[in-house]
Automatic annotation (TrEMBL):
Coiled coil, from the record: none
PANTHER family reported for this sequence: PTHR31375
One Pfam family of this chain: Glyco_hydro_28
The entry's keywords: Cell wall, Cell wall biogenesis/degradation, Glycosidase, Hydrolase, Secreted
Entries under InterPro entries matching the protein: Glyco_hydro_28, PbH1, Pectin_lyas_fold, Pectin_lyase_fold/virulence
Source organism of this protein record: Corchorus olitorius
Protein name in UniProt: Glycoside hydrolase, family 28
GO BP terms, alphabetized: carbohydrate metabolic process; cell wall organization
Length: 422
């Protein structure tokens, strides 16, 4: 049957550069394991420059962990996603320590586009489930992968969709929902375009970042809607020349640079622009967070035209970031300099501004203009702006007044080697 479908495709001339997963044995019924069909379609598409691998509409494809890998593939492949891809929900389908569900690696000119959906079915990872004993009953491979046999999931939660070591990456139009952990990750990629993308998971789903960037340069994210249980966008070390605009964020933790410098590591982030963003019911708005003990620098960042609604803390720099009850006090820190906030307006629920900078590496070159932040309700218990070792300039009056910002430059300037090392 599969061979006949391929011959029919060849007869109408569609197989020369188009590779439909149905022609490679995929059932698209939402129950049969279609992983091998996807692998076969990719192997064929990989050999043809500017080919298109098609995941058609009106079908649901159950796919286990899979890697669409170069570097021996031809360039400019399109992954046309119009149907729905769902993840297995049983522990037997996942290996231990698996870091991603679907990945594209070491490719040149890779595009994933369409109106389709990738569904991580993450609730089985977020919630505890009974321990599965594989010796207790017999099963087939399909039983294991389609979720008929439930069990506790591996402790390592995978990223839903990851691009690694690739150049010229485009993600357009698709939706990723209910990711096991991060929805969309770019690691060691260059020339990345994300447009018209949506991420959707409940606000209480743990560690479900919308878009995660690390060691990636020349990235543009636009026209996206991100609703998740962690950072809408997370920008990590090694990122530069990142432009984020026309993004709707919430629920989630806002748009964050960091956490950087964990475990005394060096972190370098530069030339980041975030503008024309709306945020609703998020933990923070725009945030820079670093661990004590790190080195390196965050420099040349612009946050502008940010509209916030019922955001706990719209503006934050936290150089004492800690994700547990207590962390060791350390003097070294990732230097933070040249951070600009322009036209940030709306409502907050806890505190308008929080600048907690390092004693040894004070924040410098922090500028604010046209900041208008009001409490959702006038409560005496709400905190005002907080600043510690933060230096810069108020270019306009602000609401509320951010009088705690120190003017000029810190007496103990950031170690120049921090910036030079980046």
């Amino acid at each position: 049957m599969v061979a006949a479908r391929r011959q029919a495709a060849a007869a109408d001339g569609s197989s020369s550069s188009t590779f439909n997963v149905l022609d490679y044995g995929a059932k698209g019924d939402g129950r049969t394991d279609d992983t091998k069909a996807f692998e076969a379609a990719w192997a064929a598409a990989c050999q043809v420059e500017a080919s298109t691998m098609v995941v058609p509409s009106a079908s649901v494809f159950l796919v286990g962990p899979i890697s669409f890998s170069g570097p021996n593939c031809q360039p400019n492949i399109v992954f046309q996603l119009d149907g729905k891809i769902i993840a297995p929900t049983s522990s037997g389908a996942w290996g231990k320590g698996l870091l991603q569900w679907i990945e594209f690696t070491k490719l040149k000119g890779i595009t994933i586009r369409g109106k389709g959906t990738i569904d991580g079915q993450g609730s089985v990872w977020w919630n505890d489930s009974p321990t599965f004993d594989p010796t207790a009953q017999d099963s087939t491979t399909n039983d294991m992968i389609n979720g008929e046999l439930k069990g506790s999931m591996p402790s390592t939660k995978p990223t839903a969709l990851r691009f690694y070591g690739s150049n010229g990456v485009t993600v357009s139009g698709i939706t990723i929902q209910n990711s096991q952990q991060t929805h969309l990750k770019f690691d060691s990629c260059t020339s990345v375009q994300v447009a018209g993308f949506s991420a959707s998971s409940p606000g209480d789903s743990p560690n479900t970042d919308g878009i995660h960037l690390q060691n990636s340069q020349d990235v543009v994210i636009s026209g996206t809607t991100l609703a998740c249980g962690d950072d809408c966008v997370s920008i990590q070390t090694g990122c530069s020349n990142v432009y984020i605009h026309d993004v709707n964020c919430g629920p989630g933790h806002g748009i964050s640079i960091g956490g950087l410098g964990k475990d005394n590591t060096k972190a370098c982030v530069s030339n980041i622009t975030v503008r024309d963003v709306t945020m609703q019911n998020t933990l923070t708005g725009v945030r820079i967070k670093t661990w004590q003990g790190g080195s390196g620098a965050v420099q040349q960042v612009m946050f502008s035209n940010i509209q916030v609604s019922e955001v706990e803390t719209p503006i934050m720099i936290d150089q004492f970031y800690c994700d547990k009850s207590s962390c060791k006090n350390q003097s070294s820190a990732v230097a933070v300099s040249g951070i600009n906030y322009m036209n940030i307006q709306g409502t907050y629920t806890v505190k308008p501004v929080h600048f907690a900078c390092s004693d040894s590496q004070p924040c410098s070159g922090v500028s604010l203009s046209t900041i208008k932040l009001k409490p959702v309700q006038e409560k005496h218990s709400l905190d005002g702006p907080f600043c510690w070792e933060a230096y810069g300039e108020l270019k306009t009056s602000t609401e509320p007044p951010i009088d705690c910002l120190e003017t000029g430059k810190p007496a103990k300037a950031a170690t120049q080697s921090n910036f030079e090392s980046c």
